[in-house]
Design brief:
Blueprint (H helix, E strand, L loop, with lengths): L2 H14 L3 E5 L4 E5 L35 H6 L4 E4 L4 E4 L15 E2 L4 E7 L2 E6 L4 E6 L5 E3 L4 E6 L2
Antiparallel strand pairs: 1-2, 3-10, 4-6, 4-9, 5-8, 6-7, 8-10
C-alpha cells in the first residue's frame, strides 16, 4: 500500500463515520482511528478486494412507526437488498441519467439497481432476487454502511 492509497483510505474513513479501521496484510498492518464516538468494526478482508470496501459496520434500523399495522404485517414476505460494502449510494450512473430502479419497478436477478462508490471506484450493485421494488430505503448520494438495507423487494 503506497502513501496515496493510505491518504485516500484516511479520507474515506473520515467521511464514512467509522471510528476505527484496522487492515492487516502479509507485510504490514495499519490502524486508522478518528475522534468520533466509537463504532466497532471487526473485519477479515479477502486479498482481492479494496481494503475498506467490505468492512462490517452497524446497520441503521429503518423507521416503521408511521406505517399502518397491515403494512407492517405484510413486510414479513418482503426481501431486503442490503449494501455489500460501505461507500456512497447512487440511484443512477450520473446526475443526467435515469434512475436504475423506482418504486413499483420489476427487477430480475442480476439487474443493476444502484451504484456504490468506494475509494473512487464505482461498483454496480445487482439485485440478487426477482420481484417488484416496494421501497427505496436510502436517499441518493448518501453514505451507506456494510449490510445496510437499501431496497425492499416483493418477490411475488
Amino acid at each position: 500500500m503506497d502513501i496515496k492509497q493510505i491518504q485516500d483510505l484516511i479520507k474515506f474513513v473520515a467521511k464514512s463515520g467509522v471510528n476505527e479501521v484496522s487492515i492487516e496484510e502479509q507485510d504490514f498492518k495499519i490502524t486508522i482511528k478518528t475522534s468520533k464516538e466509537p463504532t466497532y468494526v471487526n473485519a477479515t478482508l479477502p486479498q482481492t478486494q479494496q481494503p475498506v470496501s467490505n468492512a462490517p459496520a452497524p446497520v441503521a434500523a429503518a423507521p416503521v412507526a408511521a406505517e399502518p399495522k397491515a403494512a407492517v404485517e405484510d413486510t414479513s414476505k418482503l426481501i431486503t437488498i442490503k449494501s455489500p460494502m460501505i461507500g456512497t449510494f447512487y440511484r443512477s450512473s450520473s446526475p443526467d441519467k435515469p434512475l436504475f430502479v423506482n418504486v413499483g419497478d420489476s427487477v430480475s436477478a442480476g439487474q443493476v439497481i444502484c451504484i456504490i462508490e468506494a475509494m473512487k471506484l464505482f461498483n454496480e450493485i445487482e439485485s440478487e432476487v426477482s420481484g417488484k421494488i416496494v421501497k427505496v430505503l436510502v436517499d441518493n448520494a448518501q453514505p451507506v454502511e456494510y449490510d445496510q438495507p437499501l431496497f425492499l423487494v416483493d418477490p411475488s
